[in-house]
Design goal:
The protein contains no helices and ten strands. It is mostly beta strands and 124 residues long. A five-stranded parallel beta sheet has the order 1-3-5-9-7, with no helix packed on it. Strands 2-4-6-10-8 form a five-stranded parallel beta sheet, with no helix packed on it.
Length: 124
């Protein structure tokens, strides 16, 4: 018996699940419909390059890090919103606001917890 109303499986390349413990991870994201995912760092670092990626609507990246660092390289037309809880930590957007062409239909939302850690947002 087949179920014709079943939903198709999600494309796993549209999500990221990354864990760095006393190590570093560098990834280039190629998804043309990035949906989000999870990044975990414990005494580690993660660099994600979204310069080849695209978002349709809203993507949520959940961050959990202690003594970690995350560098996100994003296209200039993405809006990045931070809803990360901090304890001795920071989220810094180093993109030049004069050169940005913010597209409100392409939003990357950062959520989660950052303790003694940093998140840097860079231009693609």
């Amino acid at each position: 018996m087949t179920n014709s109303s079943a939903t198709p499986a999600a494309n796993l390349t549209d999500y990221i699940n990354s864990t760095a413990i006393f190590s570093g991870i560098n990834k280039i994201i190629f998804s043309k419909d990035f949906k989000g995912g999870k990044v975990n760092n414990i005494f580690g670092s993660t660099e994600l390059d979204f310069s080849q990626a695209d978002i349709r609507g809203v993507a949520v990246l959940d961050i959990s890090q202690v003594f970690g660092e995350i560098k996100l390289t994003v296209p200039a037309n993405w809006r990045v919103e931070s809803d990360v809880s901090h304890f001795l930590a920071a989220v810094d957007d180093f993109r030049d606001t004069k050169l940005q062409h913010i597209n409100t239909s392409k939003v990357l939302i950062l959520t989660g917890l950052s303790v003694l850690a940093a998140v840097e947002i860079l231009s693609a």
